[in-house]
């Protein structure tokens, strides 16, 4: 059985998570929400900034802690944007919503996780630093459940 250590510490209003012994766990900036965002992994990323190639799919897995939450764990809605050189571009991803369809599953840590595929558009500028800004909301009332910014470099 693989041992997983997650160390969380806060600096100002940002929370950085360091994951050990996870295949692709990366550091990210937690920008708030009602649930605790525990880890993010991106199939093509091992270090920050994430080097992501245009015209490809990146598999993103997000793990979160739903304990003490009034929200149903099986209904989530996603919004993601590439922010590069001050310009925002909506990210295309599948699925856009999890609705009792098996999208959300138990993680090895006893928490919850989901995986989405994000298309890295060929219209994104290459050779520049930026962010993938990710928001997950509760669709019944629009409450922000969690949000993150992941530093990226598009090539």
UniProtKB/TrEMBL annotation:
<feature type="signal peptide">
    <location>
        <begin position="1"/>
        <end position="19"/>
    </location>
</feature>
<dbReference type="InterPro" id="IPR014756">
    <property type="entry name" value="Ig_E-set"/>
</dbReference>
<protein>
    <recommendedName>
        <fullName>MD-2-related lipid-recognition domain-containing protein</fullName>
    </recommendedName>
</protein>
<keyword id="KW-0732">Signal</keyword>
């Amino acid at each position: 059985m693989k041992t997983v250590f997650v160390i969380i510490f806060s600096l100002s209003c940002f929370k950085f998570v360091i994951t050990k012994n996870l295949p692709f766990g990366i550091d990210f900036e937690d920008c708030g929400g009602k649930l605790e965002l525990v880890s993010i992994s991106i199939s093509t990323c091992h270090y920050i900034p994430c080097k992501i190639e245009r015209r490809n799919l990146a598999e993103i897995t997000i793990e979160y802690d739903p304990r003490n939450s009034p929200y149903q764990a099986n209904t989530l809605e996603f919004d993601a944007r590439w922010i590069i050189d001050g310009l925002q571009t909506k990210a295309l991803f599948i699925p856009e919503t999890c609705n009792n369809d098996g999208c959300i599953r138990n993680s090895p840590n006893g928490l919850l996780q989901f995986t989405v595929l994000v298309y890295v558009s060929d219209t994104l500028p290459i050779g520049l630093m930026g962010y993938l800004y990710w928001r997950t909301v509760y669709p019944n009332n629009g409450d922000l459940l969690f949000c993150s910014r992941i530093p990226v470099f598009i090539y």
